[in-house]
Design brief:
Layout (H helix, E strand, L loop, with lengths): L2 H15 L8 E3 L2 E4 L4 E4 L2 E3 L3 H12 L7 H7 L6 H16 L9 E4 L3 E4 L4
Antiparallel strand pairs: 1-2, 2-3, 3-4, 5-6
């Protein structure tokens, strides 16, 4: 096997283990995210999250109202430089699940030129 492949696989395993913990469930309008269980639930019940979506939302939940750049998010999640574009994709997918209107986000907002911020609330 290629040593670079081994390094990538080890990083992926570590990334799955090192997600920061928030103090408790985070309210996002009708939805609630429990970072300890990596579960998102809404008015209609459980909302399925991929592992990447759950990890990203856990990072935001641990730092509410804090602007996080794509580079910082990629670093926290253990991604390389190309991971910054993957962050955009995951944010878009999360918005579809937590926002009433994903085109006008209320909870997971873009801060132009700086990154993203999670603004929890009812």
């Amino acid at each position: 096997f290629d040593p670079r492949e081994l390094v990538l696989r080890i990083r992926a395993l570590l990334r799955r283990r090192q997600v920061p913990n928030a103090s408790g469930p985070v309210r996002l309008g009708d939805a609630s995210f429990d970072p300890e269980r990596a579960e998102l639930s809404g008015a209609r019940g459980a909302i399925r999250l991929t592992g990447a979506e759950a990890n990203l939302l856990a990072v935001f939940a641990a730092r509410p109202n804090e602007i996080l750049s794509r580079a910082a998010l990629a670093e926290i999640l253990g991604m390389d430089e190309s991971g910054e574009r993957a962050i955009d994709v995951q944010v878009t997918r999360l918005r579809r699940k937590i926002e009433v209107d994903p085109r006008e986000p209320r909870f997971l907002q873009t801060v132009r030129g700086r990154g993203y911020v999670l603004k929890p609330g009812a």
